[in-house]
């Protein structure tokens, strides 16, 4: 019998054969009435006819972990892996042993609302993007028949973001940083050289720290950006994405300054006394000390803002947005304009 009663409780069971004619069965119990059991039987048969794998109903946290291990982990940097693993921990903490079939749009929206209380909007977009990709894979795999994350509202806590709080240096202040670093060069502690490089090239900090002497071409004033330094593994790793691999033109004066560091006889351009680049903590400390000495407000400034300062210098010099976008290796011009278009309106004006 497909629907039957045992010890006062109603049960239902369906049978089917796969493409190889192998017989399968799926039981379900705990129904209070025969009608409830019959409804489950009918819905499950419908799902089966639509290609849903009714014998598969994984715990959501386990499915996300398997999805991450299969589709993401082999192709991403260690720092990005840390991000995915942090999201996995959030899923485990909130959903526990909840099976994916028991999650609907209402409960999913409640989950996102809870996360958004203590995270910025930008971070929430990252979390939503990762989880939604996993959920769409579950639909494609026939694990579930609906995308319960579709068209949900993503919100964050504005107090958790630097947006609106960060006053980036204006052109005069940026030029004062350049002069300060030139005047405070120290071969044994190459922080000033590194800050100068970030300002005048637009490299990310990890990209600059990964530079070795064979990446610098003094004869044609270019540098190759082919790696990002992993401070945890203490070795070079891959870049943020495929389009980040590039060779860029740099000022001849900068290369002449960097050439001074060859006296240290290290493989890494910005190596310290032990032959490796400094951790981001020390780079950040030097950067903030520099800003303090120059009396530039720096409560919310971070080392990555030097990349934004580089864009400001290019824009001030009249370089068009398309060329800037190509230099930064953004995926498209829209990203550049959305990020830096405000420079045209109100920031980086001379005071």
UniProtKB/TrEMBL annotation:
Residues 163-351 form the Tyr recombinase domain. It comes from Lactobacillus hamsteri DSM 5661 = JCM 6256. Residues 58-139 form the Core-binding (CB) domain. Belongs to the 'phage' integrase family. InterPro entries: AP2-like_int_N (IPR028259), CB (IPR044068), DNA_brk_join_enz (IPR011010), Integrase-like_cat_sf (IPR013762), Integrase_catalytic (IPR002104), Integrase_recombinase_N (IPR010998), Integrase_SAM-like_N (IPR004107), Phage_Integrase (IPR050808). GO terms for biological process: DNA integration; DNA recombination. Keywords: DNA integration, DNA recombination, DNA-binding. GO terms for molecular function: DNA binding. It comes from the Bacteria. This is Integrase.
